[in-house]
Amino acid sequence: MRIDVLTIFPAYLDALDLSLVGKARRDGLLDLRVHDLRDWTTDRHRTVDDTPFGGGAGMVMRPDVWGKALDDVLAAGTAATPAVPPAPAPDGSDAAPPAPAAASPRRVLLVPTPSGERFTQAMAEDLAGADQLVLACGRYEGIDARVAEHYRGALEVHEISLGDYVLNGGEVAALVVVEAVARLLPGVIGNPASLVEESHGAAGLLEYPVYTKPPVWSGLAVPEVLTSGDHGKVARWRRDQALARTAERRPDMVARLDPEALDRADRAV
Ligand code: SAM
Known about the structure:
CATH topology of the largest domain: Alpha/beta knot
Number of domains: 2
CATH superfamily of the largest domain: SPOUT methyltransferase, trefoil knot domain
Shape: elongated
Mean pLDDT: 92
Number of helices: 8
Strand content: 15-25%
Order of helices and strands: EHEEEHEHEHEHEEHHH
Bound molecules: S-adenosylmethionine
Number of strands: 9
Strand order of the largest sheet: 2-1-6-5-7
């Protein structure tokens, strides 16, 4: 997967050289590029913003600068992921067989904004199947609304929010999206089993509480069942804990569960 992040503060994204995302980049599992939006400006002051039409406080990011930058990174992504993969002739001859009806590469423009759709694990899972993600990090009062409108005509565009609060810029949202998506790419997490029982996964529950050594710390003992060696009992306990925790902390998630699927999963434990 290729991910392009456009920002006026590229250094904000330096953390993406660290930990699992950094390793995924070094291992060639993720082609992540961070671009300085100001590289697409043409004036001496490298201006990316201007006053809002209609008046009011603050500045708005200019659509012409964003348009040039986005056109360039999308074109670079298109060149990197051709729509029809070259297919060798089955008999080894030079005559190419009819081109397979390959799906065109999926390119997605993500525009972080507090007025967007809430970013979720389900969205991260969906985006992990894309060929290119482009993240447009806004600053000031945000990006001129015509930018999302313009690209919606040509590709998939999602305006996404991290939550109901206002940040100074979209860079933190870009970090969140890259981390949430990258860890789902094949080979990024050493043991893919770690992804199975996680919170917000297929079961629609929060994860059960986890413990490690020492068995007693600060007067608190690890629940006895976890040291019993009885795998059936451990599985039952974890399932009950996940259900209880979800009911207590996130009743909204419980309301979304399918009772039949819930019963089936419970019988299987
Ligand atoms: N004037 C905008 C509003 O009230 O909706 C807020 C702009 S905010 C100060 C500047 C930038 O921060 C936004 O363009 C967006 O990129 C980012 N941002 C702020 N809050 C966010 C959130 N909750 N989720 C995602 N991005 C956010």
